[in-house]
Each structure stands twice: as structure tokens, then as C-alpha cells.
Design brief:
Elements lengths: L6 E4 L7 H14 L3 E4 L4 H7 L6 E6 L8 H14 L3 E5 L2 H5 L3 H16 L4 E5 L7 H14 L3 E3 L11 H10 L5 E5 L5 H10 L3 E4 L2 H10 L5
Parallel strand pairs: 1-2, 1-8, 2-3, 3-4, 4-5, 5-6, 6-7, 7-8
């Protein structure tokens, strides 16, 4: 398995430097990762470092807590697309979810989707599975599965619990077949990364991407 093709090589810390973006992009070029996932203010910088390559530039919206107003998320999305983002990883409004306001969540996604799809960009919706019940995850699968998103994503990496094999399996069982899954949060070695792929993930959000890719060549027993 060429695990690199599954990976969004990620750096999202609030203190990210331009030299950090350069390193992430150089790693992506060397290992042929699928995408880099970087803070919105640095999209243009990443595009410049990746010029002439097929590596996608992904960024985050409403990150990491998701409770920005819909209008604010749309403004972030528009600016990100203008700057050259190919893929948008959007945190849902978890306050609404935990207060059982599914009408708000439906309204949010219904306003966001036309903006992104008008530019034919990739939509990844982050539900923060580690803080949700199984019932809430299933409801998310139903809502966002019907909305026409490209990926349902487990986590921001900022909650107390990141990706799990169990959450990926649950999402795969309840999502339409054509909607893919991105697992992220706490993926630090090849063995766990492969478990998540075997469970149904088709994209992985990792900051330990190089170690994971090197772990593949060394064999899972190397970690």
C-alpha cells in the first residue's frame, strides 16, 4: 500500500511560520502526499511552494471550535478559495449539535454547500467524533450524507479524543457509499494509520506524516 497517497500532511498550530509551511510542502513533494492542510492565512504561500505539482492545498474553516456564525464561515470559505485552496475542512457548529439543534446544522450546511460547489472545490465536514455519542455520529452521517459533501472527517485534533477505528467503522456503516471518510487526530504511526484505512478511511490528516510514510517502508513492526 502506498500510504502517502492517503495523507493530508498537516500543520495547523497558531504559531505556524512560513518556514514551517515550506518544510511541509517540501515533505509533500518528496513523499507525494495527497495534500497539505495549512492555516488560511498561508494558503498563497503554500501554493507558491507547490507550484507545478499535483499536490492539493487544503485549509480549515471555523477551526477549531466550529461555533462561528454561518456568515463568518462563508466569508472564510470565499477568501480561502480566492487565495487558491482546493479543499475546505469545515468544523460544524458543535454547540448547535450538543443542544440538539439539527435545524441549525441543516441550515448551515445548506448555505455553505452552494458556495463551495459553485467553484468545484472539495468539502470535508469535521464532526469531532471523539466528543459525540454513537447516536450523534449516526445523525451526522444522515444529515451530511444527504447534503452532498465529499468527506466526513472525524476530528480537528484539538479535542481530547481524536480518530478511532470504531468511529470510522460507524461512519462507514451509515454514510452513502460515495461519501468518503477522513480520519484525523492522534495518528502517529503506520500501524494505526493502516488500521484506519482498513476500517474505511480514504484520507488521513497527520502531522507525523513523514514518520508514517517511513514506517511503511520499514514495515509496521518498526514502530
Amino acid at each position: 500500500m502506498n500510504i502517502a497517497q492517503f495523507i493530508d500532511h498537516t500543520i495547523l498550530k497558531p504559531t505556524t511560520l512560513i518556514k514551517d509551511i515550506e518544510k511541509v510542502c517540501n515533505d509533500a513533494l518528496q513523499y507525494k502526499f495527497c495534500a497539505v492542510c495549512i492555516p488560511p492565512p498561508l494558503i498563497k504561500t503554500a501554493r507558491n511552494f507547490l507550484e507545478g505539482s499535483n499536490i492539493k492545498v487544503a485549509t480549515v474553516i471555523g477551526f477549531p471550535f466550529g461555533y462561528s456564525a454561518v456568515e463568518a464561515k462563508i466569508a472564510e470559505i470565499v477568501l480561502a478559495m480566492v487565495d487558491g485552496a482546493d479543499e475546505l475542512d469545515i468544523v460544524i457548529n458543535l454547540v448547535a449539535l450538543k443542544n440538539n439543534d439539527w435545524t441549525y446544522l441543516a441550515n448551515e450546511i445548506n448555505h455553505i454547500m452552494p458556495v463551495i460547489k459553485s467553484k468545484q472545490k472539495t468539502v470535508k465536514i469535521i464532526i469531532e467524533s471523539g466528543v459525540l455519542t454513537d447516536e450523534e455520529i449516526i445523525k451526522c452521517c444522515e444529515l451530511y450524507g444527504a447534503a452532498g459533501i465529499d468527506y466526513l472527517k472525524t476530528s480537528t485534533g484539538y479535542a481530547e479524543k481524536g480518530a478511532t477505528v470504531e468511529a470510522v467503522k460507524l461512519m462507514r456503516a451509515h454514510l452513502p457509499e460515495h461519501i468518503q471518510i477522513k480520519a484525523s487526530g492522534g495518528i502517529r504511526d503506520y500501524a494505526f494509520a493502516k488500521e484506519l484505512i482498513d476500517a474505511g478511511a480514504t484520507r488521513l490528516g497527520c502531522s507525523a506524516s513523514v514518520a508514517i510514510a517511513q514506517g511503511e517502508s520499514a514495515g509496521a513492526g518498526g514502530y
